[in-house]
Amino acid sequence: MASLAVPKPPARTRRSLGGGVGPIGLGVATLWLSLIVLLPLAAVLTKSLEGGLGGFWDAISAPSARYALLLTTAISALVALINVVTGTLIAWVLVRDDFRGKSLVNAIIDLPFALPTIVASIVLLSLYGPRSPVGIHLYATKPAVILALAFVTLPFVVRSVQPVLMEVDREAEQAAASLGASGWTTFRRIILPALYPALLGGAGLAFARAIGEFGSVVLIGGGIPRDTEVASQYIAKQIETDRPASAAAVSVALLLISFAVLFAIRWFTKRKDVG
Amino acid sequence: MALAATFLALVVSACGGASDEVGSSNSSESTNAAATDGGGAEVKLSLVAYAVPKVGFDLVIPAFNQTPEGKGVTFSQSYGASGDQSRKVESGLPTDIVNFSVEPDVTRLVKSGQVDEDWNQGEHKGIPFGSVVTIVTRKGNPKGIKTWDDLLKDGVEVVTPNPFSSGSAKWNLLAPYAEKSNGGQDPKAGLDYLSKLIGDHIKVQPKSGREATETFLQGTGDVLLSYENEALFAERNGEEVEHTNPPVTFKIENPVAVLNTSKNKEKAQAFVDFLYTPEGQEKWAEAGFRPVDPDVAAKHAADFPEPEKLWTIDDLGGWGKVNDELFEPETGSVAKIYDEATS
């Protein structure tokens, strides 16, 4: 039965590729991607080059633009790193431990996706702002920005690691344990290699999200130029003060950073998979 | 076949959509007709304003609704940084009435043909209310800041919005500029003061007057430069701040205009006219804005003390000149100081 069923699908796929649905599907996908993603990106790129390459360079190398870009990249990398550690831990707890209310916790993980990020900013402000009920004052400091970004990027690593962790070969772990490996060694030598691609992928998404994040940072971050102003805030400021070309230039710089990181991660995981 | 059917369905529904639109625009035209007949049908006016007069409109609009003219008129209101709002209207935001912090934001719409050139030819030159620039400090004024010179004391951090998006910011900078330059006669002295203020004492750049207030209330800075009405608003809300009008300060004049593209021009004009009536003026005074009607102003003289010297934009040569010389991006002297200090 099974051996009969297996060869059949490829045949159907091949036939459908020649039959017309394939090209239409491909065409629709390309058209959609072009309309929704590529066309606006091309427009941003054009806008950013309004003042020529020199204008583009001036816009992104203005001291506060450069600072905002560096700060955003550094903090996003740090937040991705934090997520790698805490996200793995949370995924681990959710997969391996049993406790009451586990499904509730599981659902809470996705909440940062559903919550408008400006609400996150307000909540953080009322918790850690000048009228903090817990006595922690983080308003307009870098830790506040990190906290806000960690909040909105929480789900990425958890959700990419979780399914992989479920699939990990428990027998190999038991074998390692029976051969005298400590818990940490087992984790490092058996589990971590299996998790690598998922971890990198999750971290990459978290990084890309953090680098463009605006809403969650806008209130709690304070937006002090050359201190806590992240790139998206800098861009908003440029638009509000009627300098759209400079805003577009910094946006393009952000896009390039993000794209480079995502591309590097893809390349890295692919190589890892092959090896 | 199925594809063709789907396509047909799409076309049909698209036509349906189109005819719906036609129907709705017809119906809105008929509401207009009814309204101009004085039939009392519902009219919705769209008001686009700078960030802080919401408290005033919250009082004025219900009062307008009490009048026969204003019966049944509803408002959609949008508030934000003055320059930002003006650019939105310029690029096509459907609007009936605009209220900006500074005249150049209306002038932008005159240039784009959306506001008639004679908008400021009335008795009060299109200005139904105003205020003065004031210094807001933490309660008790711990750093003893009372004059423009006090702002330059060591370690004083000043919060004022970004002059390229905010009208409030322009007024705030013009006040000490007018004093130091003696009404524009010695621009260099005025600019020297501003470069010290902007370079050494201004760290954050909120986009509007309201955002600046929020930033200050969150704990940033020692001094907030703002509209007197905004200071009164914060104090009445029980915030831990107080304001001092410096002895020499600047008269703020906030223009209102009706767009000639408005579909409800007459109602919009009726509302704007109401702002100048004693009733309307009374409401502005209650909200902390300085009324322009002399009788109403006399009645509230105690709330709005006269400073020793009050410079006006006319003393500096009018907005056209001031904007070109000081605030024009890239070329204005204040714009250059700002770019140097904050870019």
UniProtKB/TrEMBL annotation, chain A:
Coiled coil location: none
GO molecular function: ABC-type sulfate transporter activity
Residue ranges occupied by any ABC transmembrane type-1 domain in the UniProt entry: 69-265
Keyword tags: Membrane, Sulfate transport, Transmembrane, Transmembrane helix, Transport
Domain of life: Bacteria
InterPro entries: CysT_permease, MetI-like, MetI-like_sf, Sulph_transpt2
Keyword ATP-binding among UniProt keywords: no
A Gene Ontology cellular-component term: plasma membrane
PROSITE patterns linked: ABC_TM1 (PS50928)
Subcellular location: Membrane
Pfam families linked: BPD_transp_1
Topology relative to the membrane: Multi-pass membrane protein
Residue stretches spanning the membrane: 21-45, 65-95, 107-128, 140-158, 190-211, 247-269
Quaternary structure and partners: The complex is composed of two ATP-binding proteins (CysA), two transmembrane proteins (CysT and CysW) and a solute-binding protein (CysP).
Function: Part of the ABC transporter complex CysAWTP (TC 3.A.1.6.1) involved in sulfate/thiosulfate import. Probably responsible for the translocation of the substrate across the membrane.
Family, similarity comment: Belongs to the binding-protein-dependent transport system permease family. CysTW subfamily.
This protein's name: Sulfate transport system permease protein CysT
Species per Swiss-Prot/TrEMBL record: Solirubrobacter phytolaccae
UniProtKB/TrEMBL annotation, chain B:
Protein species of origin: Solirubrobacter phytolaccae
Cellular compartment(s): Periplasm
The name this protein goes by in its record: Sulfate ABC transporter substrate-binding protein
Homology family: Belongs to the prokaryotic sulfate-binding protein family.
UniProt-listed InterPro entries: Thiosulph/SO4-bd (IPR005669)
Keyword tags: Periplasm, Signal, Transport
This protein's record includes keyword Membrane: no
Pfam short name (any one): SBP_bac_11
GO CC, any one term: periplasmic space
Signal peptide as annotated in the record: 1-18
This protein's record includes keyword Protein biosynthesis: no
A Gene Ontology BP annotation from the UniProt entry: sulfate transmembrane transport
Superkingdom classification of source: Bacteria
Gene Ontology molecular-function annotations: molecular carrier activity
